[in-house]
Amino acid sequence: MDRTQVILPAGAVRRQEAYTGRLAALYRRKDRPPLAMVDTYGCQQNVADSQRIMGMLRDMGCGFTQDPYAADIIVINTCAIRENAEKKVFGVVGQLVHVKERNPEVVICLCGCMAQQETVADRIRKSYRHVDLVFGPQALWRFPELLYGVCTEGKRVFSIADEHGSIAEGLPVVRESGVKAWVSIMYGCNNFCSYCIVPYVRGRERSREAADILNEVRGLVEEGYKEITLLGQNVNSYGKDLDVPMDFADLLREIDRIPGNYLIRFMTSHPKDAGEKLFAAMAECPHVARQLHLPVQSGSSRVLKAMNRGYTREQYLEKVDMARRAMPDIVLTSDIIIGFPGETEAEAMETVSLIEQVRYDALFTFIYSPRPGTPAAKLPDPASRAEKQIWFDKLLDVQNRISAELHRGYVGKTVRVLVDGESGDEAWPLSSRTAGGRLVHLRGDAGLIGQYAEAKIVDSNTWALFGEIFSV
Ligand code: SAH
Ligand code: SF4
Ligand code: F3S
Fold first, then answer.
1. Ligand positioned closest to the Cα atom of 195
2. Helix 345-358 to helix 313-326 angle, to the nearest 10 degrees?
3. What angle, rounded to 10 degrees, do the helices at 276-284 and 313-326 form?
4. In whole angstroms, what is the distance from residue 133 CA to residue 126 CA?
5. 202: Cβ below 6 Å to ligand 3?
6. Is there an atom of ligand 3 within 6 Å of 79 CB?
7. Of 221, 228, 370, 433, which is least surrounded by CB within 10 A?
8. Residue 465: phi, psi to the nearest 5?
9. Distance between CA atoms of 291 and 160, rounded to whole angstroms?
10. What is the pLDDT of residues 196-234, one digit of tens each?
């Protein structure tokens, strides 16, 4: 598709602002300002999308609440990545029927990746009649118009057309803190890993113009944000669709030139497209965190092929070596799927041996969940759930030991951290992150939130480090 078709004309976004204005006028006629509840599931991409939805709601005059019974508008932003995620959402949406009974005026919206699936939309249409508006991620920018339709026509609205997807610049946003911000640099995914639903619900890969990204990051740095995470399903595909040639490594270097006291993180980087150029840029850019989330998914080359990942075990290990040669202190994390259809015990143990070899700082581990419509869901899957659970537990045991060992290595050292909030732990009340993204609980006062500090690490466990602040 042509870039001019992908990037929405400014007029299209302005038309949505007009709907926002009309909704604000409708709400002003009521006896009190409206309240909205936004409930978000899934990955950071969804969190970033919810912040845009909240921006639109704020511009309609809404305040925010966590209480569905107090809300005038409820938005559930959903995730379809595994069956559990979907079940949870159906549970939450089912409960909202009581809210609608008590307050028939409430407008209930379901959006995000689940909403994009025809089967889900059908189920909502037939069995969850209290849901008023359903729209997929590609229609997010049209939320004001869709909501206006529901409010003025009194009809249910479904907007889930299978779209390529576009890029809408200039949408309003409400960010959750003044410290950390998410910046989407691209949308969609073209990789079609055989187990994954994302390419079917998030549309085709499309990159934002570098100038727009740079302006957004510059603005955030000027506002005092200290940690900016660049988002994309595969950030290494950034720029493939741009008219002016530019790749992700180039983009990192451009962003790094923005002056200020801040750190850049990014996710996710697909191993097949990560290489010397990216690692050199990371190593040479002082604002870029020495942290790499490089999801391997499996340690078996046969399974990787069946997953359509585009690399072998050996090629992956070579990428890890390459990253470590460029940045010996790099913090490495990964995603793993255990129990892909047809995976044998020996193959699952190849994954365990890979994590022993790489020694990741942390892992996100999942048991395979069949996603209807994906190629893997059609494969024979002879291993039982109980068997897969045993492999999974084995993997976790090994990773927990490695994380604990690596964390112990920090004790006695001094690290620079960004204090990002309260931990909820009385003895170590502050929560912070190292440049590599490791969690550090700290003693200190809440006035330090949003600041960088030097902390001496005094203790550790599998999940976190514990430290004393000694200078700010
Ligand atoms: N784009 C990112 C991943 C997004 S989804 C990447 O390619 O790394 C986050 C993680 O969910 C994936 O890395 C994978 O480990 C897991 N996942 C995706 N589909 C899954 C499925 N059907 N069952 C179990 N885990 C899955
Ligand atoms: Fe899914 Fe693969 Fe795309 Fe990641 S790269 S979102 S795992 S299809
Ligand atoms: Fe879930 Fe969609 Fe993210 S399926 S993991 S919310 S891209």
1. 1
2. 10
3. 20
4. 13
5. yes
6. yes
7. 370
8. -110, 160
9. 36
10. 999 999 999 999 999 999 999 999 999 999 999 999 999
